[in-house]
Specification:
homodimer; L-amino peptidase D-ALA esterase/amidase; EC 2.3.1.35 (chains A, B); seven-stranded mixed sheet; Ubiquitin-like (UB roll); 16 strands
Chain lengths: 388, 388
């Protein structure tokens, strides 16, 4: 499953000792070909971690042979030494893979890191860990790789879609700092479809735009977000671009939903549907504004259908709407009609983890869905003690 | 003190029964002249409460005789009935004041409301309350008026600046939903200086731009924010515009600081200084982004000098900076230098309520200060049960 569901990939996940608690913390994914096409999307935060700067660069030629990922340290805001460490990690992967098979250069190796910002990685543990991981590479290593990239995730996340003769699979980690422009998420997707770098890039951008980019757990954008898609071409099948993009979207959608479902300290998963917007951009802007309203997030935690806070959030946007025509439903009950009191709020049942807020802008025909979480005392506790 | 520190004003604060707990909930402030000049600034939320729509309209001519304020209900998202209720409230004030003295029209009466959104006001209690308040109007009523506008405020907020023969004083309420474009704040300022409506407007805009508009407790913008400035001219002194603006700014600054100090559930007041920005707008944008980062707000609550979260917040802005030249100090310790690890974070002492974060963009000479609060379990508790 996971990144080894598609043919032409091996993976491993091991404990290198980067995490002080001895949990798995290093994953390696290798494309055994014949194709080595790849595409990636990265955080839009202007403060980018060293591995993001590195991986963006090595993806310039649209090819990757391997991805090495570590948890236990983000290698962000670590200056020139941090970049040297990322480079050394890629060199080490290239060296150990070359020793086992065809020559691999560091420029074919993407690096992804996650964990605390502003701390150098323990390279004396990481580099031997690369050797250990390479020794354990296997066509069945996908689950172990998915486990090794966890930070505060309570479960590992994988997803697979199998089509007629080809497969897209992947793994993701991310539990906090989930916001558009990606989140603190590391995602590696693999496929054995025969798709070139351009086709991969198009599919990946099309898929992330409506999945990972519409997840907004806590409004915070990470320095390390990385989503990679690698194609081995092993199946020999070249799917139509639309069909391929849809398969990638389905895997991304499933993984994104798993990220929200495991967000730090959350007790509710909030599906925000914005409908009848003048433009899709308007719908997304309104969805994000609702997703980021702390007062509303607290209300949802308290199972309080406080639609006034939804209207208050909509009112801060530049989207086209008339305040007197706004309608809001919570779990299907239209508690706000025409910008004022609607159905009885007592009718809203909020006992379950998933809560749907529908915001009807009455201004057009476009729509968008944004996923968010509630704001809880557990979130505060988890994030007030993270680095101490 | 408060709104009756300046000569030419009477005020009252009484319990009308709008709040179910019997606490004071209705305030009346009356300008006894000779001048009735006034200016106001209001929420920039596009979903505006009925009293905001009303008060904006009656201020068109730059004159006000009275302001009536209620807590216990925001009269926001209440449709045509809500607007009629605001109108009826102003009519009632005009009627009872006319019975006591010179004729007053409803168009000389501003209305401000605060409390839960989406609920109609109990007019059967509010209108008799107006009569009761009018009967208690006094030159010593400022404190009682300040007390009557409290919602979740733990203390009432007043401030006075006395200059050479004239005074600016005021009262404020606000404890949550504090964000730029104003917060859930109701503020009434009075002065006995002889200033016309244009001078008041200029002073008020100049003052709120660098005070109330730079308070960002929880990123949420209210539907009801109202800041009014009334001048009686009683002192007969016409101060220079600069001197007058500075006095208004000083009162606003003091009240804004009191709002942050009493924000719902907060345990820390965070002073965010952005320095060496290319423009003041850049400084404000960066300050707000830091102020709104939930992960950082949790870290500050945990007395964790997590500068990586500051950099992560800066990175989401469009301000001019080079990531490798950013410096961040927390309580004077430069924990981040040149975008990377700086002084030892163990040196940062965060035991006290006030925490200063200095973000040096190394891109110019402009600066700005934004005030925020930490994110706490108490905030979550208070706001997850507000309407239930």
């Amino acid at each position: 499953m996971s990144v080894t569901a598609a043919k032409g990939f091996t993976a491993a996940g091991i404990a290198a000792g980067i995490k002080q608690n001895g949990n798995p913390d290093l994953a390696l994914v290798v494309n055994t070909g014949p194709r080595r096409a790849a595409a990636g999307v990265f955080t839009s935060n202007r403060v980018k971690a060293a591995p993001v700067l590195w991986s963006q660069r090595v993806l310039d030629d649209g090819e990757l042979t391997a991805v090495v990922l570590n948890s236990g340290g983000a290698n962000a805001c670590t200056g020139p030494q941090g970049f040297q460490d990322t480079h050394a990690t890629a060199e080490k992967v290239a060296e150990v893979l070359s020793a086992k098979g065809p020559e691999v250069g560091a420029g074919e190796v993407a690096v992804a890191s996650t964990g605390l910002i502003g701390v150098l990685l323990p390279m004396d543990k990481l580099l031997p860990g690369v050797e250990k991981a390479a020794a354990e590479l296997s066509e069945h290593g996908g689950e172990k790789a998915a486990i090794a990239i966890k930070t505060t995730d309570t479960v590992h996340k994988t997803s697979v879609v199998t089509k007629d003769g080809w497969t897209v699979g992947g793994m993701a980690k991310g539990a906090g700092m989930l916001a558009p422009g990606l989140a603190t998420m590391l995602v590696v997707l693999t496929t054995d479809a025969d798709v070139d770098a351009k086709g991969l890039d198009s599919a990946l951008r099309g898929a992330t735009r409506v999945t990972f980019d519409r997840v907004d757990s806590d409004g915070c954008m990470s320095t390390n977000d990385t989503v990679l898609l690698l194609a081995s071409g092993t199946s020999g099948v070249s799917p139509a671009q639309d069909e391929f993009t849809e398969a990638v979207r389905a895997v991304c959608d499933d993984l994104a939903r798993q990220l929200i479902g495991d967000a730090e300290g959350a007790s509710k998963d909030i599906r925000i549907e914005v409908i009848n917007a003048a433009t899709e951009d308007d719908a997304v802007e309104v969805g994000r504004s609702i997703a980021r309203n702390n007062l509303l997030k607290c209300a949802i935690h308290g199972e309080d259908p406080n639609w006034g806070r939804v209207l208050s959030a909509i009112g801060t946007t530049s989207a086209a709407f008339d305040p007197d025509e706004l309608n809001v439903a919570i779990n299907g009950v239209w508690v706000c009609r025409n910008g004022s009191v609607g159905e009885d709020r007592e009718l809203v049942d909020m006992r379950y983890r998933e809560v749907t807020i529908t915001a009807d802008l009455a201004a057009g025909t476009e729509s968008a869905v944004i996923w968010a979480n509630d704001l809880t005392a557990d979130y505060v506790h988890e994030n007030s003690a993270y680095s101490s």
